[in-house]
Write a structure and sequence with these properties.
Layout lengths: L8 H12 L6 H23 L4 H20 L2
Length: 75
Amino acid sequence: MNISVELTPELVEYIESKVRTGRYKSRSEVVREAIRMMIKSDLEKMLEEKGFDLKKFEEEREKVSGELIERKYKI
């Protein structure tokens, strides 16, 4: 689906600079990534407001990931 937005010249230049780095192939990719980051931020805020400890979650996730890798590769 295509949409149109009006941006200031400064925002257009910022997006173009991201594309020039080579990390993104197009302006659309930059905008999609920005929206994904906003969604993630909104979800994190919502979870924190409900008392969910994101730092603890990340620590546990890393611990479990490490255990699964060790189990898989018999380290």
